[in-house]
Fold:
Amino acid sequence: MKRTLLALLLITTLFVSFACERRGGVTNGGGSGPILVGYYGDLSGRTSSFGQSTKNGVEMAADEINKAGGIDGRQIQIITEDDQGEPNKAATVVTKLINQDRVAALLGEVASSNSLAAAPKAQEAKVPMISPSSTNPAVTQVGDYIFRVCFIDPFQGEVMAKFSANNLKAKRAAILYDFNSDYSRGLYQFFKRSFESQGGQIVSEQSYTQGDRDFSGQLTAIRAANPDVIYVPGYYGEIGVISNQTKQLGIKAPLLGGDGWDAPQLWDLGGASLNGNYISNHYSVDDPSPAIQKFVADYKARYNILPDALAALGYDSMKVLADAIKRAGTTENVKLRDAIAQTKNFPGVTGQITIDKDRNAVKPAVVLKLQNSKFVYETTISPEGSSEPVATNN
Ligand code: PHE
Structure:
């Protein structure tokens, strides 16, 4: 009797530990209950606008899917973690989402440095991760479970270099970048390379770190170099202050930036000093396409604010994940990873999403002009050799 019980106990223990072993092929989020999706982002730190907007977009997409019956009858359940915008915390919360909550997939982060810290955890556990908006190329290079639904920074840097050379006729550029940010350091290099290859000259290279409040030393050096434009690939928290100080020093050259400027708080910090500057970004709320206008109207009705690029990319990341789960017919990790990798011409709010062999999306960028606390659409720049319908003769 005792022996039988012992044997039973042993078998049960073995069975349970096998069922919990994901690498053995049993994946997180399996079964017929809700599909658990982990979202992680900065909800309380220096870049909390990014995390909040993305969360809004992710939740709106999940609600739409759930209201329409879910995925093969299963509802999506988002489990959210705040990483306070810090790389080490991003790694910690992702580990928790994987091991404790046993999510089927991860959505996040926004800031490239945070994605870079968390992605190895997802890769190690073989849980698919889709970053909505991290643009540094290294993020998806972490491994074959790491994807993104946005373009990457070699392209984003080139977009602003081309715009300054062609549209603003700039010959001399200064650069002021965030030394501790993978995103900012990357864009600095990519812009520089591209601007120089257009025949332009970089006349001053200066840096700061997140949290700095006095940029007068760097800006004084930049003023002395007499640039036509100043490229500042940073996040909104510092940009507003930099913009103010640029004007205080009597610098007339416009500031140029990237997607990292995109936050409603930018206008509180920089006010009228921001007028006449430009950024590259993922989409424009002014785009007249019916799909975008429907998204903008629905988002506004729900959150009472216009959706920034983070919200749109968060929304797209959830929709792309749901589409992949549906095509895979399971949340089993290998099949789900392959289905995400096979995403083709998915109609996102931020453009057609096709995942390329490096697990990145190749999409056009928009250039927006800052005017009276608004990002006004200026132009669209497509990647070379992109999906634009062009005649080929080879
Ligand atoms: N692309 C930025 C990064 O990689 C994040 C970002 C995306 C910020 C979109 C704002 C808007 O760090």
